[in-house]
Amino acid sequence: MTSTPALAPSHGTRAESANAVRRIVGELARRRRRRTFAVLSVLSGLVLALAWLTLSWGGNAAAVLDYAATLTGGGEGIGDFRIGTLRLPRLLLGALVGASFGIAGALFQSVLGNPLASPDVLGVNGGGSFAAAFAIIALGLTGPVVGLAAFLGASAVATAIYLLAWRGGVAGYRFVLIGVGIAFAINAGIGYLLTRSAENDVRSALVWMVGSIGTPRWEQVAILAAIVGALLPLVVAVRRRLLVLQLGDDLAGGLGARVEPARLTVLTVAVALAAGATAFAGPVAFVAFVSAPIARRLLPGATPAISASALVGVLVVLGAEFAGQHFLPGLEVPVGIITGAVGAPYLLWLLATGDAQERSA
Amino acid sequence: MTSDVHPRTDGRGTSAADPPADRPRTRASGSTNAGTVRRSDTPSQPDVSADPAARAPAQRAGHDLRAEGLSLAYEARQVIADLDLHLPRAAITAIVGANGCGKSTLLRGLARLLRPTGGGVLLDGRSISTLPARELARTIGILPQGPQAPEGITVAELVRRGRYPHRSWFQPWDRSDDAAVAEALTATGIVDLAGRRVDELSGGQRQRVWIAMALAQEPDVLLLDEPTTFLDVTHQLEILDLLLELNRERGATVVMVLHDLNLAARYADHLVVMRAGAVHATGRPDQVLTEEIIAEAFGLRARVVPDPVSGGPLVVPIGRFHTTPPDHDLPH
By the number of CB atoms within 10 A of the CB, which of A251, B95, B253, B292 ranks highest? Predict the structure, then answer.
């Protein structure tokens, strides 16, 4: 090592400089962890602030505090209905939906190596919409069965994309192209269903096309919480493999990852999250699509940014809910319309500025 | 070095403290370094006499990698059929051949990125298809052609990912991982770049980063697919010097696909010439790089003269419009 200047440590013995380099490596890793921790803390703080605003808006701070007191055995029951029955379940379902879509988008984009790859763009959520609309309009179903139909529809579409993209393995771009194509086909299918249906059905089916949190019951919150809770350990378990899958199939395989099973596992977990959220809120547009790019921008390096994407997803859904309830004139607007209206231009802006940054670098 | 689990550390520790003075910086001429070059006319013949591990005290015997009756295919398209090949341990092997002759496919097959349709690859006599994936990855590393770094990744972060096969759910990151990363950054001369984003680097620097990642993996056999493509000539030599150093100092077996015949002749101990999915010739560069073999494998008329720098063979290709001295007979 000593005779080639480019390869030689500049001073000291080899052992000393090895320690120095190890310190540099350790320091860089620590710096990254500190930055990640700071970003996650700020995002969590914002989520809590937004939650407080959502619950207490319109002079209900006392009711919120009173409701909180009832949980610990005190309180006078002022907040029981307004907070405990109306606002809190809605807030929690919104948060669960946002986190699910955020994580699903982060997993999709990382494992397929494509910023366009997210369950909403690829027709997975659309599959849920179509199945729900079909259940309402063609089968005349109502209630929780419709949510189940949405879950199955989203899963079926994801399976179809995977099988169609399979050619001894699933390349990211093939998955994305087929997914985009299927998304168009599904939109056409939904349009067809709408033209065949009675006006009343259209109204209830519409909720399943734009995405809406509505006024959920506690059971619904509990079921989605259970689904997300069951999937989170799997998300943690796939994260390590995701880091090498990000390097491309050959490198990941060379590093000892079993590429195809790993990819299928990541996609399955992501689809289950997206389908679960769609079953309770419909295909809330763009949440899965925008959350991970925003999160990745805040974090250093190139991690899948799973936790940060979840928090950004929560912020996007809660923020859109809040705006839809209070800032738009007239009737309350479903959350999916807000996220769609805000999400699309924001993503364009992200892409545009990202490109500029890369060029200047 | 410290608690590194790899057996190679013993050897490396020795060379780290006191690099052997007689270590060859560049290859001596073909006549004087016969001892360092494995002579292998028949690829499947095991070699014991001229083991290059004898070159330096720090080197170990390395691993024995061979293909036996190996057939590889992409879907229905057969690329390699019934190929036998022995890769000399602790040596540098260059695989050369015309475009589309199956060089990269062979490399992918050796790293188990492709499942053979027939035959197999043996590592120390065991079929690699029976080895656990991570165990194999601790022995054989592969750097594919033109790897893509995830957007925004830093150098240190990328190199750390090379530690994947050494870590698991039950073996979290520890000091030996930091040591391996530090070592890889040092060996490739990119310590100063550790905090930089990979997408900001030049092509030559980027290639060093990828090699550092492969080194952090601590494989004993490193397979590289055209590691010098898209680099200017200075950086090509820099990368090849680096690989030579890894081989000579650590006894790493290096197998690389190269396009440049002259660089292959200069840097490789052992040359594998492929043609149409089969091994056409193997052996020392000066044995293999003849005008006849070049004409057969590449369909190229060329003169082979002594390399004024290394004394090895230097291939001077002849196009359609340049004449050659009339006294020279060319193969057709």
Answer: B95
ipTM for the whole complex = 0.83
- Which residues between 104 and 143 in chain B have a beta carbon less than 8 angstroms from any beta carbon of chain A? 108, 111-113, 133-138, 140-143
b/e map B10-38, b = 16+ CB within 10 Å = ebbbebbeebeeeeeeebbebeebeebbb
Predicted pLDDT of residue B61: 60
User: What's the average model confidence in pLDDT over B76-95?
Assistant: 91
Q: Does A10 touch chain B (CB under 8 A)?
A: no
Residue from B105, B112, B113, B138 whose CB has the most chain A CBs within 10 Å, to mutate:
B113
Buried b (16+ CB within 10 A) or exposed e, A30-56: eebeeebeebbeebeebbeebbeebbb
Map residue A88 onto helix, strand or coil: helix
Q: Which of A97-106, A111-120, A136-145, B131-140 has the highest mean pLDDT?
A: A97-106
pLDDT at B42 over 80: no
Terminal CA-to-CA distance of chain B, rounded, Å? Answer: 55
Rg (CA), chain B: 20
Closest residue in chain B to residue A355, using alpha carbons only: B151
Q: How far is A35 from chain B (nearest CA, A)?
A: 14
pLDDT for position B93: 95
Please compute the mean of the pLDDT values over residues A186-215 and round it to a whole number. 84
B142 neighbourhood in chain A, CB within 8 Å: 250-251, 254
pTM, two decimals, is 0.83
The tokens describing A327, both together, are: 């800032």
